[in-house]
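Hey L., structure's done. Input below.
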Amino acid sequence: MPTVEQIRAARALIGWSQGDLADHAGLSQTGIARIENGTNQPNSTTIEKIRSAFERVNVEFLDDSGVRKRSGQVQMLRGAQGIRQFFNELYDCAKTGGGEICLFNGVPSKLDEWLGVEWYAMHKERMLKIKGNFEYKIIVRDGETNLPASDYATYRFFPEKLFNEKTIYVFGGSVYFRDADNKELRIIKIQQEDLCNSMKVLFNVSWDYVASKAA
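Output:
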């Protein structure tokens, strides 16, 4: 469990105020202040919210009471909790002016099942509120009619013979490979700026190819 000193150090490392941490963790600024000045002992749920907020911006807590910023990291996100963490990272990137968000091989029919109907509805609502902050491009299979992000994203359609369900997201300096089988849902996150930029180039080649075929 991160200590008060680690929480303060983590904020300092990335230049967050107590209010910034509160916003990212879904807590109140007053609550963060009370934790840091020792007047409130947080429960495990609150600590996990704080830890997750820092992990989404690649800050980790070390066993020797230190903190560090990760770079070039490979991370595995698993199950419903992992995919919710992924969508929180996507939202955090979009909210802070995330630029271009690219999704190749989208499988929209699975999202309610993986995330829960209410949780995914909440995610769509918060993305809609900030849609001016980002450009969201999604490639799905030809003939797909379930387009849940159409209020804030642009869709294009890929030929069935070239489509598979190994979904790739590219945004915020990271590439995410989402895979699902009968046993487990998992997302492999590779945080590497050069790889992210290269994958965006490849994505946009496909994006332009689809547009040229439709013309």
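The mean pLDDT is 88. Helices lie at 4-14, 18-25, 29-36, 44-56, 79-95, 111-115, 117-129, 193-214.

-- N.
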